Amino acid sequence: MATDSKLILVGQVAGGFGVKGEVRVTAWTAEPKTLLSYGVLLRADGTPGLTLISGRAEKSAVVGRAREIATKEQADALRGLKLYIPRDKLPEPDEDEFYLTDLVGLEARDPEGLVLGTVKSVQNFGADDILEIAPAAGGPTWFLPFTKEAVPALHIADGWLLAVRPNEIGEREPD
Asked: Are 131 and 143 contacting, i.e. CB atoms less than 8 angstroms apart?
């Protein structure tokens, strides 16, 4: 079941739970039980991965039964499997809201309009979100903090964002 839609990471199999074939899935959604409403959760390549048929929230995870799992050993064998849904399964954000995944693929332009690169991914290493930028001229990617100072304007519908590299923030004229 390949999909043309952008895939959104929503969880990861943590392994078996108990001895009766339940599985624990760490949820990266606001409410862990939301995973139960998505139906088939996909692998990174868009093929079916796991279908949760029942479950309960436990901290930041769902513990429950999956159609594909009958034993603890089967659940443990899937440990680490990342689970995705198509972007179009998410509700549309309100006006002036967006999903971080919507930033991927946007052009990063400097204040003069020069294209610096393209947003390759949005990372979070524990503090704040960081945009990984693939340079337009090629070479290694670089990171830009996703703050109002470094990204003062988003033009998602037009496919770009304004990027002020950290060494340039102090050089900007006040607004």
From this structure: yes
Phi, psi at 39, each rounded to 5°: 75, -130
Q: What is the pLDDT of residues 123-140, one digit of tens each?
A: 888 778 999 999 999 999
Closest C-alpha to 130, from 153, 109, 150: 150
Which pairs from 50-57 meet CB under 8 Å and 24+ separation? 50/13, 50/23, 50/25, 50/78, 50/81, 50/83, 52/25, 55/25, 57/31, 57/32, 57/33
pLDDT in tens, 70-121: 999 999 999 999 999 998 888 888 888 888 888 999 999 999 999 999 999 9
- Closest residue by Cα to residue 131 from 141, 117, 146: 146
Q: Which one has a higher pLDDT value, 65 or 171?
A: 65
Give the pTM: 0.69
Dist CA 64 CA 52 (whole Å): 7
Q: What residues pair up with 160 in beta bridges, in sequence order?
A: 107, 155
